[in-house]
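Q: Convert this sequence to structure tokens.
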Amino acid sequence: MTYKFQLISVITASLLSACSSLEERELASGSFDYIKQQPGQKIQLPTGVDSPKFSDAYKLPELGANAQTESLGKDLSVLSPSLVLPVVAGSHIEEGSKNATVWFDQVDDSLPLETAVWNTLKGFLESEGVAIESFDKDKQRLVTSWLVKDESEESKWYSWSSSERTIAQRFEFSLDKKPHGRTAGLSVALVDYKEKVDTQSTEITESKDKRRNEVEILNSVVKYYEFETTLANVKRYRKIREGLDMELDVDNDQVPAFVVNADYDVTWPRLLLVLRQLGFDVKDYDKSNGLLFVKYNGASDSWWSNIWSNDKNEFDLEFEEYRLKVASLGNKTSITLLDEENTPFPMDKLTDLFPTFSKTMSDDNLDI
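A:
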């Protein structure tokens, strides 16, 4: 019987602990009677008695001029310090900074950095159903409408929570670009705050921990940024491995070229795979200018030499060097082949090369 009683007591205690609301979890457990205590007095010694030797080992330091003295008892949050989490590739924080700020470095040249950051923030707000109250691109400022957090909606059936606490917040985001334009810091500031413990309670208009609220929303944005980046990379890698259609056409200078039905950032890594598959070594490249310097080392398949001429000995390509110029054509990409003298291949030679290049470019699952 005693065992059953103990078991019931443990279960009851567990259920009660699960019933605690978010507000209660922010508070220290136990009594707050300590705030009623008065500082102790020094020992009064009678006249003529020697003073004992006192130790300062447990002496509390003096309060600083800017120390908070109001946060005591239930007004003091015991949650761990809030930290900005720079989980996106190329992101970091400034050591010692107390602001809710995360810095991003340009790692993808497909979009200007500020455009990528603002697009991510807007996408996050849209996913949360939060409207944008104002956006000034020139001043790099964005102010949200109310973001409402209802604790009762977050409670699980097994938590036995009966909390009706709601928090509504408005934030201002700002972007600070470095002069070189390849690094930008996204900061957030809490503009307005409203909190109600239940429907009958008085509305609270000031947050207990302003920075915590700012860091929480900033980390949510960074997490969304990281998810979108990962998703985009997965889609991009999948597309690179998939076969791409190619045709004979001309580049931006009306020079005969291969035209791939994919954008530049997909075609470029795919072309590197194709060249390796066809027996070319890339000696050097400049992706920003779309230049590739290659050397043909010979393909393992004997039919490679036949695409240059009916007489396989007429063109000896072993250790021959060439250049390829890759350029964007909007949602397509041109590949222009050049010889050592920087002279473009004529259409008839490209026509001979096309079947082999096209077949390899369209093959699925080339190794990355």
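The longest strand covers residues 183-196.
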